[in-house]
TrEMBL record:
The organism of origin for this protein: Pilimelia columellifera subsp. columellifera
Gene Ontology terms for molecular function: ATP binding
Span of domain ABC transporter: 5-235, 292-510
Oxidoreductase is among the record's keywords: no
Swiss-Prot/TrEMBL keywords: ATP-binding, Nucleotide-binding
Entry protein name: ABC-F family ATP-binding cassette domain-containing protein
Pfam families the record matches: ABC_tran, ABC_tran_CTD
Length: 607
């Protein structure tokens, strides 16, 4: 193991943005697999650009091992409109750093393996890049990096526009290749699967941790606990010093100078407030009994058949995930629900009280000619947030945009900040149905946690197409797959069942269509008839089961917290009595909820 890149006291800043990194010293070994995390705008992309020497630091230096080969995937690509896949992947139309000529790779079967693994097996090597979608162009660029032998691979958001199978393939490929990898990604499963170290870009520095996302999360919590204890001691000492200094104006002049200097040092040492995001639920319009009712719907995307004679219902409060490979038609289905297109056949009825908000993958809908505050006011000048009536500037602050960012042009925002602004504008319309197309793209891990917390308590309906396992498993109750057979298939086993079916190549064998079909003789109807319940009652019962499961999970977490508080208050008998009473109450509530769940589960038919 040897160092290939060293950063020695590196600092970097930009005029309108301010200082991003200060006195950062790091080393990269030849077998490191490093995940880079941090808030949007903290300096992650700037750090990568300095590692590749695309930008020079303001202070300090970046040194590379002699003859080091570095390949990088940036956020923004310029592949050339007339280039073909062959030019990009096998030639030097995009990468010209001397990684190898076409003849070295043309006979390599690994090239086709990489293209297939990234979901581009349907494209020929002579396909032009110009007409491709942004996701396809990004996968072409990623393939160009993976077919080359680099000592260090630097990837900025490589999982964007990859489906679940593509993310799993890329993780396996990176683990099996030789050389170091540095990756910025929002995909927490990917970070855990691939990385053996994590860099957190925060407070103008970079903190290094061993392990992937889970290990970093635990280490960060411990660091915050220690910092909170230190800060509590500092604040206590600060209060004593200030009280001593204020003990009468006449006495102040007679205080020993070293005591005054010590107190001033404490006051000056107040750390800056971190730019955090706390997404809170805005006012939501009342939702009636009907949300979406699709009957015999067929959809096409160009010459490709996406759905055929699909009958499907989405009820109030339902949380649905749509899975499928890139090009399966997930976005087309969401656009149908959002009212942006009509079905090619059949009907799509929308409830009279539905007020839907559609978060698309594209950021072009943001008004780039406006400043951030103007873009918020363009949607709503005042918004009801909880029990508070807030102005546009106050709302922007809740979403992590500080005063100095309010007058930043939208076009100058980072990808993550623009995504956060897009979400802000969406929620400001006070919807009761959220239609989310890849909502996790470009968001940092802290914002993702806040988004999941918001969606977890959302009272309306949620329909989301995503390749993020964490998001799907936390905020949705039902998973449906578009497996290429023209049907919308219910997947009771969730993400794992979807991957299993893809691996076995038996979508058609399993594809029974809609497991919750409202057609006469459908699976859900037959199950309902066998139990003596109407299909509507069965759906309501299963929805209640999901609610009870989430309630048990939250109560169990509360129970765990109380146990920890009891351990910490072992010497405080009055506090122990209070906590013990709370613990007994929570335990009783858990037992009652579990009994309610079991009683309801016995009444319902098997899925």
């Amino acid at each position: 193991m040897a160092n290939i890149i060293n950063l020695d006291r590196v600092s970097k800043g930009y005029g309108p943005v301010g200082q991003l990194l200060t006195d950062v010293s790091l080393g990269i070994a030849d077998d490191d697999m490093i995940g880079v995390v941090g808030l949007n705008g903290a300096g992650k992309t700037t750090l990568l650009r300095m590692l590749t020497r695309q930008e020079e630091p303001d202070d300090g230096r970046v040194t590379h091992r002699r003859d080091l080969r570095v390949a990088s995937l940036p956020q923004r690509l310029d592949l050339g409109a007339t280039a073909t896949i062959r030019d990009i992947v096998l030639g030097t139309a995009w990468l010209d750093e001397g990684f190898g000529a076409e003849h070295e790779w043309a006979g390599d079967t690994g090239v086709r393996t990489i293209l297939d693994g990234l979901g581009m097996g349907y494209l020929g090597l002579d396909s032009a890049v110009g007409p491709m979608s942004g996701g396809e162009r990004r996968r072409v660029a990623l393939a160009a990096l993976l077919v080359r032998s680099a000592d260090l691979l630097i990837l900025d958001e490589p999982t964007n526009h990859l489906d679940l199978a593509g993310v799993a393939w890329l993780a396996g490929h990176l683990k099996s290749r030789r050389g170091a990898v540095i990756v910025v990604t929002h995909d927490r499963w990917f970070l855990d699967e691939v990385c053996n170290a994590t860099w957190e870009v925060v407070d103008q520095t970079v903190r290094a941790y061993e392990g992937g996302f889970a290990a970093w999360t635990l280490a960060r919590i411990e660091r915050q606990r220690v910092a909170a204890t230190t800060e509590a001691r500092r604040q206590n000492l600060l209060r004593k010093e200030i009280a001593w200094l204020r003990r009468g104006p006449p006495a102040r002049t007679s205080k020993p100078k070293f005591r005054i200097d010590a107190a001033n040092a404490l006051i000056a040492d107040v750390p800056p407030v971190r730019d955090s995001v706390s997404l809170r639920r805005m006012a939501t319009a009342r939702l009636g009994k009907q949300v979406y009712d699709l009957k015999d719907v067929s959809l096409r995307g160009g010459d490709k058949v996406l759905l055929t004679d699909v009958t499907w219902q989405v009820g109030p409060g339902e949380r649905v995930a749509i899975l499928g490979a890139n090009g399966a038609g997930k976005t087309t289905l969401l656009r149908l629900l959002a009212g942006q297109r009509e079905p090619d056949a059949g009907t799509c009825k929308v409830g009279a009280t539905v007020r839907a908000a559609f978060l698309s993958q594209e950021l072009t809908e943001l008004p780039g000619h406006l400043r951030l505050l103007e873009a918020v006011e363009d949607v709503a000048r005042r918004v009801k947030l909880g029990d508070r009536d807030m102005s546009a500037s106050q709302l922007a602050e809740v979403f992590g945009f500080t005063d100095r960012r309010l007058w930043t042009p939208v076009s100058d925002l980072s990808g993550g900040e623009r995504r956060r602004l897009q979400l802000l504008r969406l929620l400001a319309t006070e919807p009761n149905v959220l239609i989310l197309d890849e909502p996790t793209n470009d968001l940092d891990t802290d914002t993702l946690a806040s988004l999941e917390d918001l969606l977890d308590s959302w009272p309306g309906s949620i329909i989301v197409a995503s390749h993020d396992r964490y998001l799907i498993e936390r905020v949705t109750d039902n998973v449906f797959g578009m497996l290429g057979d023209g049907r919308l298939t219910h997947l009771p086993g969730g993400v794992q069942e979807y991957l299993t079916r893809l691996a076995s190549g038996s979508a058609a064998q399993f594809g029974v269509g809609e497991s919750r079909s409202t057609q006469p003789g459908g699976q859900a109807d037959r199950a309902a008839e066998s139990s003596g319940l109407t299909p509507a009652k069965v759906r309501e019962g299963r929805k209640e089961l999901s609610r009870l499961e989430r309630q048990v999970s939250k109560l169990t977490q509360k129970q765990k917290t109380l146990h920890e508080q009891l351990a910490q208050a072992a010497a405080d008998f009055s506090q122990l009595a209070v906590l013990d009473a709370q613990l007994k109450s929570v335990s009783a509530e858990i037992q009652a909820t579990e009994e309610q769940w079991m009683a309801l589960a016995e009444q319902l038919p098997d899925q």
